[in-house]
Design goal:
heterodimer, A: 333 residues, mainly alpha, ABC transporter involved in vitamin B12 uptake, BtuC, two-stranded antiparallel sheet, 15 helices, 74% helix, B: 246 residues, alpha/beta, Rossmann fold, six-stranded mixed β-sheet, four-stranded antiparallel β-sheet, globular
Amino acid sequence: MATTSIEEVIGHSQHRSALAWVASRQTFWIFLAAVIACTLLTLSTDTFATERNLFNVTRNFAFVGIIALGMTAVIGSGGIDLSVGSSVVLSAIVVGATMAAGYPIYVAVPLAIVAALCVGLFNGILIAYVAMPPFVVTLGTLAIARSLAMVLSGNKMIYQFGPDHDLLLALGGGSMLGVANPVFVLAALAVATGFAFRWTRWGRHLYAVGGNEDAARMTGVRVARVKVSVYVFSAFTAGVTGVLEVGWLGGVTTNLGQSMELSVIAAAVIGGANLAGGAGTAFGAVVGAALIEVIRNSLILLGISTFWQGTFVGAFILVAVAIERLRSIRQRD
Amino acid sequence: MRILELRGVSKNFGAIHALTEVSFAIETGEVVGLMGDNGAGKSTLVKIIAGNFPPSSGQILIRGEARELRSPRDAQREGIEIVYQDLALCDNLTAAANVFLGRELVRRVAGVPVLDHRAMVARAAKLFAELKSETRPRDVVRRMSGGQRQAVAIARTRLTDPKIVLMDEPTAAISVRQVAEVLDLIRRLRDHGIAVILISHRMPDVFAVSDRVVILRRGRLVADKPAGQSSPQEVTGLITGAIETA
């Protein structure tokens, strides 16, 4: 202490080296796990590393990944959103029914997104201003939004989308440069979300609310507004996914997005979002979604019954939370 | 100059009278020790001055003018800064992020307000150096000692040019050496003409720095006198009710 000035101590960074920092990130290990899984699958099957299969894998994980971005914002702020799967189907039915009624795509898509945003706004207001627990509120809207989709469609499949039919199918089902369109949407949203988390007041405040809500309130953070915004954002990502999924499937029924919230929450949590709030990254959400899809895909390719999928996803959530738990116990000592 | 004055401030929570007709004033550059037992109404008083909730009746005057403090932002705008008992820190964020929480520095990149991490870290480092605290701005608060957390909370009040600083039990959870540092800091604030309201249970700390002592008992103000004319024995009597008023 005699030789170092206080300025030197203060100026010294906590991180010993870049390598130590990387190794301390959950995202890094998940990324590594995904890479290893892909390598093993490439070596043990001739079907994994095919263009067709990789195209499908990336597109499938894009749907979960997009919503995982929104879910990471919600979980980062200390909340949970169980209604995303129902927002997906509501958005999908609205876009389908509107276009089937002869309206053009540029009317139907915004309308579908707005329908999803309404669910998010409803969630956010009840959670932020009425102080109801997020779990209960979004469990309620999980039932309500899907039921509204059934009412709207008469629970019938919609597969003819009027004058802009081909446009809608191209939007979600098409590809550019050999990459499925939803993957581009995921990439763009991931970059935008990652930027917002790290470089905007909104990002900083949502993690502050997730870390210590009272502290955030006392220092002047507008906690209620932050809370509403994360549920609206999560609903937005679900709305976008709904529109893309209709285009990919070429038709929509009211069981679309059923139990999707489980995969999405798993992706966010595996990617480092802490269910206690205050942590999570956009990159982590994408990597988490990728890992889940690779595992699911490997089950199919290796001829294992897909009934096991739920066991894997559930086990992943438990393992990720257990690791987080162990780490927080160790830090307290 | 009377920087802050309370006139007949009362606060009821339903049938509970947390504060009854409390009046006192504080001058610029004065340190007032606010004391009382648990439940005497200290925290309620702090929260009213901080703008967390309004009084049920009575007036708050700042620089002689009646003001309504509807939110912590209102209070900050009037130059009132609070160091909370639990320090109001987000453990998951860095020291610099906590110092600037709610008033982050931004620069505009193509018209978009973007957090200026470098400027915030540099400014926080400077504040920690001024406070003579070995606190690293990029460290996460979760791993910090009680003294470092205190430094983060106090650094936060120095961002603006505060007129009044309220400190709620600043010496409750830190080591002896750090107590001396915090008391030094209070003197430094006073020397800058800042009025300090020090809420504490620790009698020696209060008498070490306070010009005046104000004592609450069951929501009522029972004493308001120069520290030099009082004693720890008298204050203890006033807090417990062994002495009615002074």
